[in-house]
């Protein structure tokens, strides 16, 4: 009696254990391990282009006191936050239309179309933008035809934004739409019922109610833009040194892996703080 | 979201209203019809609601009671007929212009706002000044015992507290009518009874009109001045709770309220000139005033309430008697609901005291005799 009971308990424990095993394994192997390695690496030394295990603060001192590091940091932050704001603004009317004005069928088709960009490599999509934006590109030709000579659009902040919007817009629209679709429509009726007109309802009810979705979408756009290498390299032409480009340059110049680790850790810390702050803001009640 | 283009210039009186005398009712529904494609949700609905009354609309699921409430609030357009408030035609007023706040079944409280901001919402929409908003919100939070919860979120409240926030949110704007759509259905029985008392007290104190949709008999009968019973998009009966309980107008009402036995009968005049009711269960006498209006051969339903039927183990000498088999018994505290079935298949419900039941010494399957006094029968056409 007791033994059969304990066997049943054991098997239930084993069952739960098997299912929950991959998560800690994954986190330990692919997050915690590399993270510890990265932190450790940031204290190493490079002697004669060779990595030498050590414990010295030189890398941190060097990077955190370098003006070019902070310039890159600020630049990357501004680019990422601008991209997040721009993408959220572009996505908002789209998501509102998808969630409130399209029929169920049309909604499925449109949301499906927003997944299609993920079928092709982001690199390919950025490369194709080059054809449009380059000196003799399609956009230039069209502008020249109506008498505007703007030179190359490549390597401008506009090109950077175009690349980052290409990267993040579909995802942000999907995230915003899901949060709007899960909004309880009775809340909108309740707002009307309390004398809230149709223009006001957007700002008084719909947007506050879907704020978690909007913030989450913007957060994803920020994270992707902050760490992006492709757009900064191929549409920014390396003219705008971002954190990712800084990492690549630091590694290339004299095998400075420890200093690159410092940059990477600063990026991780920034993203972590931004994510926590965003989530706190998303669920704040007013 | 409704578009602005739908708002038409308001007319104070409907075209069809010009030919009719003005109504003195607070809210009048005239020949209201609502169809969804071919499906008829509400048909030929006429109802006058007097100012300051507590009106409960009840009926089975899909009877059109919620549709009616939604049409009043402006959430649904009417397909035909007129809605009047104090004689004003309000058919084409938008939801946000109607000033008929509603307590929703799901409560529909704003989860992104604190309790205080939830209650303040309607005032803010009406453009009430900040200082006045603050005092009025505080006043209502106090009235409903919520003053300690003003800065909490909705998810930090209990079911009863949320209910009160929903009420405060509507009442703070001092409306003349409050719509309630099954507001207590999410509460447990104990809390529901407590809230019923509070709702009735509030309505009396404020003196405003409550239109309360529910499927619960106890809610409707314990609170309402007028009970309206709906079925298949039509009003079956509207009257005081007592009226409906004692004199159901249709077999549907009697069946819906439960607790009554219904005998299908035909009126027949005896040689003595006396009118009796004959059916598959036998011939019954009835002394109600309705008897005088019956014609020979007219099809009627004889309704007898469960508390007016007595049961004996042996056939006795009562005037109205029918033999029936015991098919079930339900104990409700000190009372027993006995379910009987006659040879003709008619279901009879009898309510007995627990100790009378024990004295009878019967069990499921026993054949007993059910009887009632001729003055206790109630006759309905059809």
UniProtKB/TrEMBL annotation, chain A:
Highest taxon of the lineage: Bacteria
The membrane topology noted for this protein in its Swiss-Prot or TrEMBL record is: Multi-pass membrane protein
Give the family from UniProt: Belongs to the binding-protein-dependent transport system permease family. CysTW subfamily.
Q: Which residues cross the membrane?
A: 21-43, 68-92, 104-123, 158-178, 214-237, 257-283
The ABC transmembrane type-1 domain is annotated at 73-278
Q: Which PANTHER family match?
A: ABC TRANSPORTER PERMEASE PROTEIN, INNER MEMBRANE ABC TRANSPORTER PERMEASE PROTEIN YDCU-RELATED-RELATED
Where in the cell does this protein reside? Cell membrane
Q: Which UniProt keywords apply?
A: Cell membrane, Membrane, Transmembrane, Transmembrane helix, Transport
What PROSITE patterns does the database record attribute to this sequence? Answer: ABC_TM1
Q: What is this protein called?
A: ABC transporter permease
Q: Which Pfam families match?
A: BPD_transp_1
Q: Which InterPro entries match?
A: MetI-like, MetI-like_sf
Q: Thylakoid as a keyword?
A: no
Q: Which CDD domains match?
A: TM_PBP2
């Amino acid at each position: 009696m007791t033994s059969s009971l304990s066997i049943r308990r054991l098997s239930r424990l084993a069952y739960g254990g098997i299912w929950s095993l991959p998560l800690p394994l994954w986190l330990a192997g692919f997050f915690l391990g590399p993270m510890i390695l990265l932190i450790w690496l940031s204290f190493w030394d490079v002697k004669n282009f060779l990595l030498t295990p050590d414990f010295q603060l030189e890398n941190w001192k060097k990077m955190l006191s370098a003006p070019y590091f902070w310039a890159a940091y600020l630049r990357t932050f501004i680019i990422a936050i601008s991209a997040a704001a721009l993408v959220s603004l572009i996505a908002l009317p789209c998501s509102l239309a998808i969630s409130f004005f399209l029929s169920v069928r049309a909604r499925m088709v449109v949301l499906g179309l927003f997944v299609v960009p993920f079928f092709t490599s982001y690199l390919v999509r950025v490369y194709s933008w080059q054809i449009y934006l380059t000196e003799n590109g399609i956009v230039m030709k069209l502008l020249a035809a109506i008498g505007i000579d703007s030179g190359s659009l490549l390597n401008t902040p506009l090109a950077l934004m175009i690349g980052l919007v290409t990267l993040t817009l579909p995802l942000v629209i999907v995230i915003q739409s899901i949060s709007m679709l899960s909004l309880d429509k009775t809340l909108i009726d309740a707002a009307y019922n309390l004398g809230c007109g149709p223009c006001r309802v957007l700002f008084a009810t719909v947007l506050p109610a879907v704020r978690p979705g909007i913030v989450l979408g913007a957060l994803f756009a920020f994270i992707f833009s902050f760490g992006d290498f492709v757009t900064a390299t191929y549409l920014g032409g390396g003219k705008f040194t971002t954190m990712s480009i800084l990492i690549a340059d630091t590694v290339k110049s004299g095998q400075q892996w420890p200093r690159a680790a410092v940059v990477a850790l600063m990026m991780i810390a920034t993203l972590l703080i931004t994510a926590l702050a965003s989530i706190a803001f998303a669920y704040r009640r007013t | 979201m409704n578009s602005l283009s739908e708002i038409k210039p308001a007319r104070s009186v409907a075209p069809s209203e010009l030919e009719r005398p003005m109504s003195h009712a607070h809210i009048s529904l005239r020949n209201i019809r609502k169809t969804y494609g071919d499906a008829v949700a509400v048909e030929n609905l006429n109802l006058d609601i007097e100012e300051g009354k507590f009106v409960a609309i009840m009926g089975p699921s899909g009877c059109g009671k919620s549709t009616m409430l939604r049409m009043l609030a402006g959430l649904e357009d009417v397909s035909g007929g007129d809605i009047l408030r104090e004689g004003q035609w309000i058919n084409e007023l938008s939801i946000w212009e109607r000033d008929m706040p509603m307590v929703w079944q799901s409560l529909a409280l704003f989860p992104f706002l604190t309790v205080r901001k939830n209650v303040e919402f309607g005032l803010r929409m009406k453009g009430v000044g900040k200082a006045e908003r603050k005092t009025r919100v505080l006043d209502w939070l106090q009235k409903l015992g919520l003053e300690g919860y003003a800065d909490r979120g909705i998810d930090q409240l209990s079911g009863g507290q949320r209910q009160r926030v929903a009420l405060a949110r509507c009442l703070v704007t001092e409306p003349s009518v409050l719509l309630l759509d099954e507001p207590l259905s999410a509460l447990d029985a104990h809390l529901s009874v407590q809230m019923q008392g509070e709702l009735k007290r509030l309505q009396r104190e404020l003196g405003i009109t409550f239109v309360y949709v529910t499927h619960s008999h106890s809610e409707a009968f314990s609170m309402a001045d007028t009970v309206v019973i709906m079925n298949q998009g039509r009003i079956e009966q509207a009257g005081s709770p007592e009226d409906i309980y004692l004199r159901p107008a249709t077999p549907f009402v009697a069946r819906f309220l439960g607790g009554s036995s219904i005998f299908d009968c035909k009126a027949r005049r005896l040689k003595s000139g006396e009118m009796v009711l004959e059916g598959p269960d036998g011939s019954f006498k009835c002394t109600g005033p309705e008897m005088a209006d019956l014609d020979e051969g007219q099809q009627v339903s004889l309704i007898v309430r469960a508390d007016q039927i007595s049961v004996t183990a042996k056939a006795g000498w009562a005037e109205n008697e029918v033999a029936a088999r015991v098919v079930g018994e339900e104990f409700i505290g000190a009372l027993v609901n006995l379910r009987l079935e006659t040879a003709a298949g008619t279901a009879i419900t009898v309510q007995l005291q627990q100790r009378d039941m024990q004295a009878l010494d019967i069990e499921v399957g026993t054949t007993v005799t059910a009887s009632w006094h001729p003055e206790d029968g109630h006759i309905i056409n059809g």
